[in-house]
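Entries read chain and fold; for instance:
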Amino acid sequence: MQKLNAPCNEGFPTGHKNNCALHSLCATILSSKKNSSNCPGQKNSVMTDIGGHSSQFFITRQVPQALSLYIENLWIWSGAPRPSGFDRILPTGAPGLIFNLLEDETRIYKSSDNTLSQRLDGCGFDGAHMRPFVIDTREQIYVAGVNFRPGGAWPFVKAAQDELLNTHLSLKDLWGQDAESLREQLLLAKTPSLALLVLEQVLLRKLHKPLQRHSAVQYALDKIQNNPGSIRVEECLQSGNVGSRRLTRLFELETGMTPKRFARLLRFRQVVSHLHKSKGLIDWTDLALRYGYYDQAHFSREFRDFSGFTPTSYLPLIGEFENHVAVS
């Protein structure tokens, strides 16, 4: 694993049209780059040599602290397509951006039969999902993207997140021609690390809202993430803040889901992670009870709702990546 040391671009990004508070935030972040010998997050940007070939890499970039509440990381990948042909993508509840840098197209397939569902251009937006979808791994040769956290796309798009739930859109539907311009900038970047720096700077320019969640939403997110198995909506209420109906609506606006649905999905994600790390036989009844399901039947039903697999049929399909399941 090799550390990458990409130079930092100096200066405030041009074309910023948001309010003074957001302008000040961007200026502060970019100013910190000038005063540092390395870009913020550069120490976490790594290249993994895949298969021993220098042309194959996977690089991630940690964003500045001000963005880290909303963005998990930025990433870029170059490598041979996976041999399976199609991968089913399990829902995470988090939105994402993806840029196909080899061809200006992205294809989405139905999880039920792997038939083509949507054909988008090379700049895509994935809303938070509660159900799986299928991608063509033959497209995954040179791609970059943004992994948002749950509710993380809220400041970067004008639309309410519940309007984008379970959707795949061309990014130009949300950002206009700026989306195509961004893809061109990524292609022109001299190194993969510089491409991620460009992506970070564009995200700063595309802020539509202040980087501040409603306190009730943040409180609920923290409560659910700490204990998704048995949390009730009433337990997500911050004392003296908002009522349950108001919290539900605010939570939907920012994350796309109700608190209850998000808790169910997060519990499913914990089970997937458990299975991905497990070795040997699984006691399904014990697993169901451990994660707060009423019984094994309840567990199996919810697992199938989110993944399209029964737990036992999913187990032999576990591969290298938690969110990807080879289906052909």
Notes: The first strand starts at residue 2 and ends at 3. The radius of gyration is 20 Å. The first helix runs from residue 20 to 34.
